[in-house]
Write a structure and sequence with these properties.
Belongs to the ComF/GntX family. Pfam families: DZR_2 (PF18912), Pribosyltran (PF00156). The chain is of the alpha/beta class and 238 residues long. The protein has a single domain, classed as Rossmann fold, CATH 3.40.50. It is 38% helix and 15% strand. The chain has a four-stranded parallel beta sheet with strand order 1-6-5-2. Strands 3-4 form a two-stranded antiparallel ribbon. Helix 4 packs across helix 5. The N and C termini lie far apart (47 Å). The model has no long low-confidence stretch (mean pLDDT 86).
Length: 238
């Protein structure tokens, strides 16, 4: 069975399992009201800072572009992050990535969909995985999240638009300053994107090095605008 076919089978199987089993809240185990989290746990999720940089989504005074983005502008144009990557968002992301809980992807997809009431994009691009890591994991969590958003808004999903051509070490294993160098040349885009507005989907944004490298590849292919929509943003160090 091909990798793409096995991914589709896994997605369909997960959807059937979700439909057949009673839904309980991921966090407290209570009744989830047909959702992955109950209303009480949803109300307690960690929100992003009220004032934040519109480019990198880190805290910033009066929502102005932060000094870091002014000094060294990334290739992407804007970032929307729904939560801080702290408990319990870290547990939910890890359950999706490492335990294959695709119901979490559906929940994240619905959240991101609600964050884009009037989407104005030509293409949705999930953060790609290298083929080796994709084979190990069996699915790409960003694709599973983006699938729900694309369906909700009728947006074209370009999961094969960009390839991850370098099997980089996990970013989490590297110091912050080394992550940008680690991602250099990691992506390749063979599709013409002349003038297109692209929305990139990812689960977690830490330093933004991966998203910056991906945006550079998309703009080199002609994209006019690249925005990020992520579930969670890692707080700044210290």
């Amino acid at each position: 069975m091909s990798l793409s076919l096995s991914n589709r089978v896994a997605s369909f199987a997960s959807a059937w399992v979700e439909a057949l089993l009673p839904r309980v809240c991921f966090l407290c185990g209570g009744h989830g009201d047909g959702q992955r989290l109950c209303p009480a746990c949803v109300a307690g999720l960690p929100e992003k800072p009220v004032a934040h940089c519109p480019v990198c989504a880190l805290p910033s005074v009066d929502d102005i572009v932060c000094g870091r983005c002014q000094r060294d502008p990334p290739a992407f144009d804007a970032t929307i992050a729904l939560h801080l990557y702290v408990f319990p968002m870290d547990r939910m992301v890890q359950a999706l990535k490492y335990r294959g809980d695709l119901s979490v992807a559906a929940y994240f997809g619905r959240e991101l969909s609600n964050a884009l009431p009037y989407p104005n994009y030509d293409l949705v691009v999930p953060m790609p995985l290298h083929v080796r890591r994709l084979r190990e994991r069996g699915f790409n969590q960003a694709v599973e999240i983006a699938r729900h958003l694309g369906r909700a808004h009728g947006l074209r999903l370009g999961s094969g638009t960009v390839r991850r051509v370098v099997d980089t070490p996990p970013q989490a294993d590297l110091p912050w300053r080394e992550r940008k160098a680690n991602m250099r040349g990691a992506f390749a885009c063979d599709t013409s994107l002349d003038g297109q507005r692209v929305l990139v989907i990812d689960d977690v944004m830490t330093t933004g090095a991966s998203l910056d490298a991906l945006a550079r590849s998309l703009k080199a292919a002609g994209a006019a605008q690249v925005d990020n929509l992520v579930v969670a943003r890692t707080p700044p160090p210290g």
